Amino acid sequence: MLINTLFVVFVFSPIVFVLLLLFLQKCLSHNKLIILANINILSVAIFFNYLIFNKLNTNIILWEIIDIYDIKANFSIKADALSIYMLNIVSNISFIVHMYSIKYMQNDEGKLRFTIYLSTFTFAMFILVVADNMIQIFIGWEGVGLISYLLIGFWYDKSDALEAAKKAFIVNRISDFALLFGIIVIVHTFQGIDFDSILNNNKILEAKELIIFKFYNKSLNKLDLCCIFLLIGCMGKSAQILFHIWLPDAMKGPTPASALIHAATMVTAGIFLIVRCNLLFSNSDIILNIVLYIGILTALFGAISAVSQDDIKKIIAYSTCSQLGYMFAACGTKAFTAAMFHLLTHAFFKALLFLGAGSIIHSINGEQNIKKMGKLANYIPYTFSMMLVGSMNLSGVYPLSGFFSKDLILQNLYISNHKCVFYIALLVSILTTIYCTRLIFYVFIKDNNFNFCINEINPHDPPFLMKLAMIILSIGSIFFGILEKSLGENSINFWENIIIKDNLKLKEIIPIHIQFIINSIGTVFFIISMIFFYKKTSISNTISNKNNITFFEKLTKNAFYFDLIYEKIFLRSFYTIVKYMNDFIEKRFFNNITNYLVLYCFSMAKNQQKIYNGQISHYAMIIFLFTIGMIYYIGMRHIFYII
Fold first, then answer.
1. Where is each NADH-Ubiquinone oxidoreductase (complex I) chain 5 N-terminal domain found (predicted)?
2. With contact defined as beta carbons under 8 Å apart, do 248 and 559 qualify?
């Protein structure tokens, strides 16, 4: 079929164009090559947009990668509703970021290299999303990890960027090792590696019967073990608590890279894998509860940390942690539809916030501290309107897209009989409105006595292409939720086509007062927070007073000292072990053995010198004696053989 051929072509299109850019970089100007890359990504996005409502469900086998005993796996393209849905999100956000980068990076010497990284990153995410088996998932998984390292450390002449890149790479390697071990356990359990073998009800039931060990009335089975390792892998990529430390530091790269990593690609890979393997997780109640609690703790931690940050990009980064926690919590209640819907809306409004932050930073010569900004609404009104739309979406203000997707998650948390988790989610929603309004207030409204004209900064709105990128994101952020609601029954059919198994109880009766709280909490607290900050009430004064910083404020400003704790426990222990290995094992053991071998070789060489002294007569005598000895030996063997 033509559609299948085109599907494969457009999946591989980004990497083909990367090779083309590398080949043509000496023939054409960098600006022309960047335009070509943008046209390519635009064509990919248009094609996948065309496919979104097509009921395409096929596996396109390309070549064989594994054939060992009964385990077979092909490198193939899984073209189903879920993969097309994700391809839409990735390709659209990728194109917008590519377009935004044309002007944002125009004065950077490495702008072509940056475009190549973006396209390669997009391709790696495509491979992950269309994977038909766990090996292919792992290839894409490692691909986005590698390119994220290059993007975060793009400005490699800055030491902090290099440190942030290494941090992201190492933390993800730890969780990726767990994912790799999970793949091994899956192969051993299901005797297969492709999703048709894994997502099989009969095999899943058999795996539940294989008990590994029991503790009182609790037991851990083979299915639980598979899900544990998959979960740890997902926690690393999606920056859940304990593995979150790489995400805030990932802001050291260019802002468009931050938008791509945080909005729709790398960090959503963990959510995608859980949804893809939802049959496994749905049959493991223990792991589902763990997913739920990890998600809600991450949401709370991210929201509390974001409230106290002064770096505009770090505020949005911790916000990403928080929203990913929401998605994890939704998956923990089997509300996979709600998680995927929030993933879609979050991709647009979070990319909008990052690109808006990039516009702010770009206009005031790289300043990122919101305490050094103020009254920017007078200077960059367009960026102000875009940031306001993004912040209102993030807060869940009616009738924007963020309202509908967050509303869906809160409903499912309430009907899941985890009332404590539900009320924590409400608290997170309140905290979200606080850090969103705080950002808007300090950057655009509050007078911080920072005169831009005197300091010759002269803030200005971005060029047309950067404006266009933000307006496209704002349209998606405003209308996607309303569009989903207006689809009615078609919407339910659409989601059922995407998610294999879901526990979304849309018709469940929720008390009117709870429904009112869920629907109004974002809008009401956004307005209240804006009034409090605008009128400089005690709340804003407490937050802005540098001379009266409490222990809790220090704790939250330093993100609960996770980095310091990891440094004390893990890094210093590792350095101690390495020092011991160097001082004792390397120097005293291996060096002594090496020195002994060297001395032995020298002594052997000296003995050899006595024989090989350079005199021909001496050599002739040795050859003569050796020949006589061989003749004697052969002769004696022959005599004994005859006897």
1. 66-114
2. yes
Q: Are 295 and 140 within 8 A, CB to CB?
A: no
How far apart are the C-alpha atoms of 245 and 391, rounded to whole Å?
Answer: 24
Name every residue whose Cβ is closer than 8 Å to that of residue 487 and which is 6 or more positions away in sequence: 494
- The CB density around residue 205, as the number of other CB atoms within 10 Å, is 11
Report yes or no on 117 lying in a domain. yes
Per-residue DSSP letters for 100-136? HHHHHTTT-TTHHHHHHHHHHHHHHHHHHHT-SBHHH
pLDDT of residue 541: 46
Structural domain span for residue 444: 284-545
pLDDT of residue 188: 87
Spell out the residues 6+ positions from residue 4 whose beta carbon is closer than 8 angstroms to its own: 58, 60, 79
State pTM to two decimals.
0.86
- Asked whether residue 346 is assigned to any structural domain, the reply reads yes
One domain, residues 351 and 463? yes
Burial class of 607 by CB neighbour count within 10 A (0 to 12, 13 to 18, 19+): exposed
Among 284, 294, 279, which Cα is nearest to 221's? 284
Residues 404 and 493 in one domain: yes
What's the CA gap between 433 and 388, in Å, rounded? 12
Q: Is it true that the peptide bond before 399 is cis, omega within 30 degrees of 0?
A: yes
617-622-626 Cα angle (round to 5)? 145
**Total number of domains in the chain:** 3
Q: What is the rounded CA–CA span in Å between residue 588 and residue 566?
A: 31
| 62 three-class SS | strand
Residue given tokens 């809008």 in the structure block: 523
In a domain, residue 590? The reply is: no
Measured CA to CA, the distance from residue 345 to residue 393 in angstroms comes to: 9
Last residue of a domain, one of 514, 545, 576: 545
The SS3 of residue 345 is: helix
Both 275 and 314 in a single domain? no
Q: Are residues 416 and 289 in the same domain?
A: yes
Tokens of 594: 């090496």
CB atoms within 10 A of CB 56: 16
Low-confidence ranges of the chain (pLDDT < 50): 453-454, 488-489, 500-507, 537-546
